């Protein structure tokens, strides 16, 4: 009994002398101090209320946007549409990840380990089981080998660069893996054998929070898996226009550096969503290496968020610059659209222009009118304004494949450039005039305190 009392006394002494002494008060659990960091290339849109919908007569008599006062929370938004260069970063990441996985699987099948030379240099980083730490060993014994491919969770070796020059391939196994990534020889022409873009598939999982919150069931029942082919459909430049010569755009627009700063097109709604998931994953991989808190997810904007941002703080305006005209006082067009019958070049652009062309609105957002229409997260219902919430409204019905596009494009007349005009396209359709931009929720309430720019 004396030993027990003495042990309790020692514990009490240790607790009272510890760093976490709260003197018996309710002080809360203190985590790391949080300093909001503006994501690169984005601008902060301070939340507020506005009148959503047509502020004047609906000339087209569509009557799908009656006025309604709504409130949105603060969020960050891309200053420009996602460009070809930015989307290529996504495509290249998917391509390289697939190649590294294929090389690692081949090395694993051959019994090769990291550093053994040849294809072994690309083996899984945990392939040498003699040098695993306790956690890695536990995961290797209990979880690796599960999943669709049997290699989920294995860590790729990203320290060594992929070898692209066929003259430098290290061995025949490496050559065999790389050969599977290119189009068949019989499909090549002019001596060019390119990557088979149909193999560039991005796989991600997410929790359907809406369903989980409203439907009873286990958490695992609401975890969804998506597989998306990420390469843009470059044939849209041909398919969208009958009896029209647009082959140069089909051949060069996405991959050539001349168009690197132009908005990506030929991307459907599912691909735009996949890009958001990848951007979150890519950023948080970096955060993990720096032992920083993870950022919250990037996503497509809701319809109300998009319109609020496009208005730039101007109440009742037809366009991001106010209106009601699409020209300034010097007779210059203020956006890239179809201003006259068949005269696409009257605004100095036949197709798209650079994503930061023309003047931004008062929120420093470029091309919220014209250039390319933009996917948003909302499903299109002509009556949705009648029943949607007045707080952060967003109507996204998974069974409704019609998704809203906003802002008008280079091939549209001025009506579709109005900030209140609504249009839609089916979620699996890609067009030469539809792109997108992303948003990220602002965490916290006071946007003025501790807000700093991300380092370039």
UniProtKB/TrEMBL annotation:
<dbReference type="InterPro" id="IPR016187">
    <property type="entry name" value="CTDL_fold"/>
</dbReference>
<dbReference type="InterPro" id="IPR005532">
    <property type="entry name" value="SUMF_dom"/>
</dbReference>
<protein>
    <submittedName>
        <fullName>Gliding motility lipoprotein GldK</fullName>
    </submittedName>
</protein>
<keyword id="KW-0449">Lipoprotein</keyword>
<dbReference type="Pfam" id="PF03781">
    <property type="entry name" value="FGE-sulfatase"/>
</dbReference>
<dbReference type="InterPro" id="IPR051043">
    <property type="entry name" value="Sulfatase_Mod_Factor_Kinase"/>
</dbReference>
<dbReference type="InterPro" id="IPR042095">
    <property type="entry name" value="SUMF_sf"/>
</dbReference>
<feature type="domain" description="Sulfatase-modifying factor enzyme-like">
    <location>
        <begin position="41"/>
        <end position="439"/>
    </location>
</feature>
<dbReference type="InterPro" id="IPR019866">
    <property type="entry name" value="Glid_motil-assoc_lipo_GldK"/>
</dbReference>
């Amino acid at each position: 009994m004396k030993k027990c009392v003495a042990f309790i006394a020692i514990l009490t002494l240790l607790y009272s002398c510890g760093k976490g002494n709260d003197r018996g008060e309710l002080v809360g659990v203190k985590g790391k101090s949080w300093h909001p960091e503006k994501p690169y290339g984005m601008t902060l849109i301070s939340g507020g209320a506005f009148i959503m919908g047509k502020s004047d007569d609906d000339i087209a008599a569509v009557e799908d946007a009656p006025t309604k006062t709504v409130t949105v929370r603060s969020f960050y938004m891309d200053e420009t549409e996602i460009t070809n260069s930015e989307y290529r970063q996504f495509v290249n990441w998917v391509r390289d990840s697939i190649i590294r996985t294929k090389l690692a699987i081949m090395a694993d099948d051959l019994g090769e380990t990291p550093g053994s030379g040849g294809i072994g240099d690309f083996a899984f980083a945990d392939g040498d089981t003699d040098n695993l730490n306790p956690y890695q060993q536990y995961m290797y014994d209990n979880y690796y080998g599960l999943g669709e491919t049997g290699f989920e969770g294995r860590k790729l070796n990203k320290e060594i660069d992929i070898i692209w020059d066929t003259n430098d391939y290290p061995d025949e196994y490496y050559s065999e893996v790389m050969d599977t990534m290119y189009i068949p020889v019989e499909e090549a022409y002019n001596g060019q054998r390119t990557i088979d873009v149909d193999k560039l598939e991005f796989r991600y999982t997410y929790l359907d929070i809406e369903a989980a919150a409203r439907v009873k069931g286990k958490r695992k029942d609401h975890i969804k898996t998506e597989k998306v082919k990420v390469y843009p459909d470059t044939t849209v430049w041909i398919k969208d226009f009958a009896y029209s010569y647009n082959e140069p755009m089909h051949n060069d627009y996405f991959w050539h550096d001349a168009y690197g700063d132009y908005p990506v097109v030929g991307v459907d709604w599912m691909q735009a969503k996949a890009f958001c998931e990848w951007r979150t994953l890519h950023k948080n991989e970096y955060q993990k290496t720096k032992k920083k808190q993870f950022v919250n997810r990037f996503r497509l904007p809701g319809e109300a968020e998009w319109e609020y941002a496009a208005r730039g703080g101007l109440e009742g305006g037809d366009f991001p610059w106010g209106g009601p005209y699409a020209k300034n006082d010097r007779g210059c067009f203020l956006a890239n659209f179809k201003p006259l019958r068949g005269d696409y070049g009257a605004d100095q652009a036949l197709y798209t222009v650079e994503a930061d062309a023309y003047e931004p609105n008062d929120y420093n957002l470029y091309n919220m009118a014209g250039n390319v229409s933009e996917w948003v997260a909302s499903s299109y219902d002509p009556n949705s304004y009648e029943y949607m919430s007045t707080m952060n409204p967003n109507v996204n019905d998974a069974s409704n494949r019609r998704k809203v596009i906003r802002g008008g494009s280079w091939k549209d007349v001025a009506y579709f450039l109005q900030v209140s005009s609504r249009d839609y396209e089916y979620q699996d359709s890609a067009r030469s005039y539809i792109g997108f931009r992303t948003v990220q929720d602002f965490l916290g309430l006071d946007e003025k305190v501790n807000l700093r720019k991300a380092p370039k």
